[in-house]
Amino acid sequence: MSATTADGALRALTDRLGGRIAYGGDYNPEQWPRETWREDARLMQEAGVNLVTVGVFSWAWVEPAPGEWDFSGLDEVLDLLHAHGIAVDLATATASPPPWFATRHPEAMPVTAEGVRLSHGSRQGFCPSSPVYAEAAARLVERIAERYRDHPAVVLWHVHNEWGNHNAHCFCDTSAEAFRDWLRERYGTLDGLNHAWGTAFWSQRYGAWEEVLPPRATPAIGNPTQQLDHWRFSSDALLACHRREVEVLRRLSPDTPLTTNLMGTLEKKVDGFAFARETDFVSVDHYLTAADPEGHIGLSFDADLARGMGGGAPWLLMEHSTSAVNWQPRNIAKTPGQMRRNSLAHLARGADGIMYFQWRQSRAGAEKWHSAMLPHGGTDTKTWRETAALGAELQALAEVRGTRVRADVALLFDWEAWWALELDARPSVDVRYLDLVRAWYAALWSSGTACDIVHPGADLSGYRLVLVPSQYLVADAHAEALERYVAGGGHAAVGFFSGLVDVHDHVRPGGYPGAYREMLGLRTDEFHPLRAGESVRLDDGSAATVWTEAVELRGAEQVLAFAKGEEGGPVPGGPAVTRHAHGDGTAWYVATRPDRDGLARILRRICGEAGVAPVAEVPEGVEAVRRTGPGAGYLFLINHTGADARVPARGIDVVRGTPVDGTAVVPAGDVLVVREDPAAG
Predict the structure, then answer these.
(1) What are the phi and psi torsion angles at 422 (to 5°)?
(2) 145-154: per-residue pLDDT in tens?
(3) Which of 162, 245, 267, 483 is catalytic?
(4) Does residue 609 contact residue 586 with C-beta atoms inside 8 Å?
(5) Contact criterion met (CB below 8 Å) for 294 and 341
(6) Mean pLDDT of the 386-397 span
(7) How far is CA 49 from CA 33, 40, 90, 390, in A?
(8) Which domains can be identified in the chain, with CATH numbers?
């Protein structure tokens, strides 16, 4: 998928929706009697719904017994929705095999690292490498595609559902054989495998392929490269399942676009960039972490990541919640206005569709306490009123579809670096990937600075600044690309414990920080991670936690130091933040984890030197994002605070049609979308 392809596919979809932003959610009619279907269609119209996802968990509905097909209910639902002007994103239904599948094929159920074979009773009950699952899934997709490829309601194919959410890693004998095949393809020979896995350590050298296993439970710390390769294999095994479904849909229904709902940072086990390339446009699910008082910043991060997975093109928010979810330890309801803020924040960051799980709240099953557009209480509820109001507002905002977010800053994100960093036996369990990348992102968010979140292999030439908060593992080609970017005049900032190992998780020779040592103009003699709860002081008065290291300057200049004396921790007076002129550009290094204010100051200085300006000058807690197109720019101002905010802006309030003459007043908890005056710059 290219960004151009994604632009065209999603634009064509919203054109079929009458030029409107997609709005709706998962619809599961099999849970309800037929009379409820008619009420649903009427209420969808009332709420402004124009697209629903149907069939995600319908395998048992359409194939109640092996080879016995009953499409009568699905036929009726699709006809009913079409008659009410509601389009359908039709799922392939492969995410939840029925009980008969597990009963007939117990060998297809996943096995844990401890050797426990799991049983049917939830969803995603299959081993990704199972040939009998592949056969049954392909048969199901063929029947659905053949029957509905010409149905006028079907405007989009929904491949599977949340790949790998529950069954990404399987350790059964079938998976073991598939893992060996994957390793043969990757390394060619046992000598290649033994080198990559470093099997000279602990007498692990393999003499026959049959000896090679997945990283099952073992007496001591497992081989880290074996573990890393199993993460890669597992993601690829699911991707192979995805490709098989895509092949059927492309063959039988080539004119209908397809997508799958990725999960961004909610799903560590699946490489989202790899799956995004196998869709016509990116779709994601996102759910706020209720325990996080700044969950809206995490929301923005995942929205920017969705845009990055799609190469900057608009994307589709396939699922989020109207209020509480059902699977967190404490499922907190959203406050009045929060659903609207969440939804419009996704729109601001490039979504051309706002969808929910689900349309009607379930009465039974594992997700009956998960909120929905139409709650248990019906239309006389806060959530329903907010749902209908947002549907009307999105119609007024339809003109923003197809526009893009432009950013001068790229933040590198890599699932493989995430996997490798968090394997066993690293210097500190407190060094966690998402903690680091989100901390740097939050500093940009708070200053109103736009940021693209991209793969290390992305084209960096259009950015003024590249941030590398955490890249423990880096491929040679990606390290060389960053070095060329800086030498050519770019600015980059690298976080601690980055650049250290190659793709085999082998430590790079010559000293730390490995691949980035010359670019950064320094060498680290030794790492000094901090104890739990311990902090140190920097010489600007800020605090830092988690990590320190003994940095030796080899051309770089010291910008900040660890404080002298006991407050400075293990390396008092040593460099904590450095700056190095490399070629025509500048490379910064942050050798610790500064506190929030300290990191914000560091990144403000780096942005200033790189010529990066914020989208708008915003007060703390106010989000500013701009989408631009050929004819106009749209400034989204989202106030997450309890006080009114004033932001410099000029143009027209898109929803209300009133002028914004130099200052936008954004009431507490409100959202303002300004069509900007081109003359305002």
Answers:
(1) -100, 20
(2) 999 999 999 9
(3) 162
(4) yes
(5) no
(6) 98
(7) 21, 11, 16, 10
(8) 3-184+216-401 (3.20.20.80), 409-610 (3.40.50.880), 622-680 (2.60.40.1180)
CA distance 107 to 77: 35
User: Span 344-351, mean pLDDT?
Assistant: 98
Is residue 476 pLDDT above 60, yes or no? yes
Burial level of 122, CB count in 10 A (0-12/13-18/19+)? Answer: exposed
204 cis-preceded (ω within 30 degrees of 0): no
- CA 376 to each of CA 55, 326, 383: distance values in angstroms, whole numbers, following the listed order: 21, 14, 10
Residues 642, 640: Cα–Cα separation, whole Å: 7
> Above 50 in pLDDT, residue 388?
yes
Active site includes 162? yes
CA angle 324, 51, 85 (to 5 degrees): 135
Structure tokens at 97: 């095999």
pLDDT, residue 677, reads 74
Counting residues of the chain whose pLDDT is more than 90, the rounded percentage is 97
CA distance 293 to 285: 20
Q: What is the mean pLDDT of residues 5-27?
A: 93
Asked whether 165 and 147 are in contact (CB, 8 A), the reply is no
Predicted local confidence at residue 3, as pLDDT:
61
Q: Is the pTM value of this prediction over 0.90?
A: yes
- In angstroms, rounded to a whole number, what is the distance separating the alpha carbons of residues 224 and 420? 8
Q: What is the token pair recorded at 465?
A: 């600044």
- Pull the structure tokens for residue 28: 């599961």
Residue entry with tokens 């279907």? 37
What are residue 584's phi and psi, to 5 degrees?
Answer: -95, 5
How is residue 269 annotated by DSSP? Answer: S
Catalytic residue among 245, 319, 483, 676: 319
pLDDT interval class at 7 (50, 70, 90): confident
Cα-trace Rg, the chain = 26
Rounded distance, CA 624 to CA 538, Å? 31
What is the token pair recorded at 654?
A: 């898109």
